[in-house]
Amino acid sequence: MVKNEERVGLVVGLGANGEGVIKQDGTIIFVPFALVGEKIRFKVLKVTSKCAYGKVLEVLTPAEMRIRPDCPVFGKCGGCQLQHVKYINQLKIKEDTITTCFKKIAALNVEVKPTVKGDNCFRYRNKLQLPVVDSPKGTLIGFYAENSHRVVPIDDCLINALWTESIIKAFKQFVEELDIRGYNEQTNSGELREITVKEIKGNLIITAVVLSENLRGLKRLIEILKEHVKYKFSFYLNVNDKATNVIYGTKFIHVCGPKEFLGDMLGVKYKSGVQSFMQVNNSVCSKLYSTVRDIVDADNQTVVIDAYSGAGLMTALISKNAKKAFGIEIVAEAVECANALAIQNGLQNKITNYLGKCEDLLPGIIEKERKENSKICVVLDPPRKGCDIKVIDAIIKSGADKVVYVSCKPSTLARDVGLLVGSLEVINGEIKKSENYEPRYSIELVRPFDMFAQTKHVETLVLLQKIR
Ligand SMILES: C[S@@+](CC[C@H](N)C(=O)[O-])C[C@H]1O[C@@H](n2cnc3c(N)ncnc32)[C@H](O)[C@@H]1O
Q1: Could you give the CA distance from residue 445 to residue 307 in angstroms, rounded to a whole number?
Q2: What is the pLDDT of residue 275?
Q3: How far apart are CA 460 and CA 33, in angstroms?
Q4: DSSP 346-378
């Protein structure tokens, strides 16, 4: 098999990123947007010692699940990977991905329950993040193409909320009127590098990430936003002059509008600020959090530790019948919001929020609570990279009675659950499959939640119960 060769093949499986898998000449070829059962004509783009990558040239026999995507930039922009698949089949693909990750990564056979769906599989996102780049064609606003820093210009996004089009229109007008330069990552120069928006109950927090705090035409930008955006909004500048992929710099400048907005979910009132983490899909989030609350099912003997607690919404929900609850979170503004939330909901005597890293704080908290003979339930909701090994070790050492794991990445979820259960172990710094092991935890539930419809991503909830 050589690069640029054109071939015909049958798609026999699915890769972890939703791509089609073809096996030919002893090589596995990953072909994005090809579906299981399809015969396709494809071009070989890259061959490595382990596998090859291809691109669909023509679908010769389309699968029954294939549909025509509505988005004009689907396949070009890297946001969605599954818009060409019937929704019911998208769910099946994600369930299969989770099963495969548990099997291949952690040698665990798990029963994956049917996915919990949201109210809408389009227009569900409450959060937008748009890179603004300098290009030979001028300043471009859009989304990155898959695995690249090339921006595909867009006017709207079908999975984002309805306000998206007006935000893009306003920023495009601003860029044109004032000839604002987008970010050039080669020279680390430009004026505007990113636009972010989050919605809290119909109110928007809009942030322009800029290279210098004196953005030209700032007053005019606010006027244009007011002309186009029919929502109440607040506006921030964030200054980021570093050559980095991290979106925000450390300095936020509040320009106008309320600094935080109030929301409520499942009876808990909360404040959300510019930096606090927020789940992207409200209807799925509410279903997920109510399931977490029900399976945590804390009693007055139980201490609940919400590791990676964000703005503290889940901590409040799971604390209600518990002896006490702890939140651990690395972002200071989120901890401030979590403290305000505890007070606002009359839970300040029950909840303690810690600012810091779970890997540094969790071991000490668990040890102290164990000495007081509390039952312990740990809720984990880490970012995509999963938990630090110190977090896993502390849970294993304490023999926490229950672990509830909320994950947005099946592969790191499978790895961490394998380590907790015992099917995986760390030997000389490397994760290996255990030969013979007595499981420490039983896997009581694996339930996907379709937080990210039309994309390859999925949120998964796992419940582990200590085996006595
Ligand atoms: C997936 S979010 C979950 C937030 C929260 N549970 C929720 O549902 O809104 C992960 C959170 O972990 C925080 N975080 C990331 N690394 C961390 C670490 N090492 N220690 C503590 N918090 C961390 C992030 O700031 C973020 O708020």
Answers
A1: 19
A2: 85
A3: 23
A4: T-TTTEEEEES-HHHHHHHHHHHHHHTT-EEEE
CB of 334 shorter than 6 A to ligand 1: yes
In 3D space, the residue among 151, 225, 228 whose CA is nearest the CA of residue 190 turns out to be: 151
Burial class (CB in 10 A: 0-12, 13-18, 19+), 48: exposed
CA–centroid distance for 357 within its chain = 19
464, 442 in Cβ contact below 8 A? yes
Ligand 1 center to 374 CA (angstroms): 25
Q: What DSSP line would sit under 130-146, residue for residue?
A: EEEEEETTEEEEEEEPT
The verdict on the CB of residue 277 being under 6 Å from ligand 1 is yes
CA pseudo-torsion sign 432, 436, 442, 447? positive
Q: Please say whether the beta carbons of 431 and 403 come within 8 A.
A: no
Ligand 1 centroid distance, CA of 45 (Å): 37
Q: Among the atoms of ligand 1, which is closest to the Cα of residue 382?
A: 10
Q: 165 CA distance to ligand 1 centroid (A)?
A: 29
Right CATH for 1-65 from 2.40.50.140, 2.40.50.100, 3.40.50.1970, 2.60.120.1440 = 2.40.50.140
CATH of 102-117+281-466, one of 3.40.50.150, 3.20.20.70, 1.10.3720.10, 3.40.1000.10: 3.40.50.150
Residue bearing the CA closest to ligand 1, atom 27: 310
Tokens of 104: 């291949």
CA-to-CA distance for 435 and 423, rounded, in angstroms?
Answer: 8
Q: What are phi and psi of 456, to 5 degrees?
A: -75, -10
Positions marked catalytic: 408
- Ligand 1 neighbour 280 (Cβ under 6 A): no
Q: For the whole model, what pTM was predicted?
A: 0.91
pLDDT at 17: 78
**pLDDT of 49:** 92
Residue where the block lists tokens 């509390």: 374
- Determine whether the shortest distance from the Cβ of 389 to ligand 1 is under 6 A: no
State if residue 333 touches ligand 1 by the CB under 6 angstroms criterion: no
Contact 121, 450 (CB under 8 A): yes
Distance (Å) from CA 274 to ligand 1 centroid = 15
- Does residue 305's CB lie within 6 angstroms of at least one atom of ligand 1? no
The answer to whether the CB of 413 falls within 8 A of the CB of 457 is no
Q: Which residues of the chain have pLDDT under 50?
A: none
- At residue 207, the pLDDT reads 98
CA dist 31 and 11 (Å) reads 9
Q: Which atom of ligand 1 lies nearest, measured to the CA of 276?
A: 27
For the segment(s) 127-264, the CATH number from 2.40.50.1070, 3.30.1330.60, 3.40.50.620, 2.102.10.10 is 2.40.50.1070
